Amino acid sequence: MGGVSNRPWRATVAVAALTALLVSGCSSDPERPAPTPSPAGTSAAPSAPAAPPATDPAARAAALVATLSDEDLVGQVLMPYAYGDSATKVSAGSAAGNQALAGVDTPADMISKYRLGGLILVGFSADDPTKGNQETTNVDNPKQVHELTTGLRTAAGRLAAGPAPLLIGTDQEYGVVTRVTDGVTVLPSALAAGAAGDPKLTEAAWQAAGAELSAMGINVDFAPVADVLATRSTVIGSRSYGSDPKQAAVQVGGAVRGLQAAGVAATLKHFPGHGHSADDSHQDLPVLTQSAEALRSGAWPPFTAGMDAGAMAVMSGHLDARAIDPGTPATFSHKLLTDVLRGQLGFKGVVITDGMNMPPAKRWAPGEAAVRALNAGNDLILMTPNVGQAYDGLLAALRGGSLPRARLVEAVTRVLTMKFRLAETPAAQMSTLNAPAHRAAADALATAAVTVLRGTCGGAVRGPVTVTSSGGRDGTRTVLTAALTAAGVQVKPSGGTIVHLVGYGDGANDLRADAAVTVAMDTPYVLSGAKSPTLLATYSSSRASMTGLAAVLAGKARPGGRSPVAVPGLPATTCRT
Fold this sequence. Notes:
Helix content is about 40%, strand content about 10%. By secondary structure, the chain is α/β, with parallel strands linked by helices. Helix 9 links the parallel strand 4 (about 220) and strand 5. It is an enzyme of class 3 (hydrolase).
């Protein structure tokens, strides 16, 4: 699946959409009153019809769409979050959260009441630049996630759209945005992959990661980030593969192929390019001041490369591209999503909004925002701040004519086609989680990323080592200490050669003047002010990155990485290629 060009995918979905439009006139009665919602605490839902014939995904989607009511169609374009780490049993606090969000108690109730097409699993960590729209967390460990996703699919299987499996997504980017961290193989960041510069390593690592997501029941990953890091954006930062659009494009293609080979949909984000603004869309509406041609050549190559690698989805960003549709966030821009993304770039897959609970999307009420987003060209509405209002708004707009039936049918056909495509790949087994081969793939990518920006290329650190760090990184110090010890380097609490770690959010005040080696575990810009004779970058604080760093410090691995962003006063590497 992952190695197939996106062009046949574009064509088949177009045919499916046309077929669905021809038969959609008998799908529902627009004057029929909405059914009475299931009482809170239950998971009752309409009985599912017999599955369409076992043909290609696009044909199955078109056939299924023709059977769906208005209510079913509207539900299939919604992908909210929910409170609770179980589908059917939640705490009082989680029930209260779900009541405020959707008027139900549990995630299963939410799926049943609103005939949902998908659900996103959410969470956050200390260094997470996206934590502003993560209202809760419902991921803890693989076993819990697997039980949760199994319960969610059981609820969705009772729906009229049940033959098409529920979309369950999460933001497993690796690096600072990683939802599931315990008991799984954690890859280094995208920027680390950009530094390694080997798309084969990237593809192998992402295929391993995709298998583990599949095993846990997750079939959509909101990754890879296709944004080019054209600015010092702290919200994108190490989530990007770098500042060179061509080099980033190669890496994005590798990530897409790996992820989708494992049966997990890749999502290119954030179109038309969040890295071209330093502002944060979790707080306000970033403005892209570049010309249309500058965006085409400088921002879009990773998106087109991802599409050509077969990416099933693109996420629209809350970004104001002044040269194309000034004043309108791309999420709500017909010019950007329909004329440019679909028309000029030829993408016919699923377009998903960025979180609709973010400030740029909340300028409109949930119902109106959902209608505007769908009319602009989105197919899935992600993380609405009120599920009931979004659902009711879409249904009223459909029956009132402000949401054309053809647009809704087209969106649902795309969503169902993606579901049936994903169902063609059997889910991996839980036994694959954190498998040795997966860890080896992550280690190979992380080790290849280690970069020397000052100092001798590949020289082992002298004498016993003392590992220090900026505040709050005790866990990373412990991991590096263990990795150094395993590599044969003596580590002692004090008095040794100082190896100092800095990471996400750190600045000049977090550096140590007496450090012999300073290591940047996020974007490497902070190294421009470091005085250490040896400067290294791992771009990530993952276990794999610390293992790779230890191998370099022990003189057992050559630091072959090149910084994928320019650091003032420093070369991309001191190692000759």
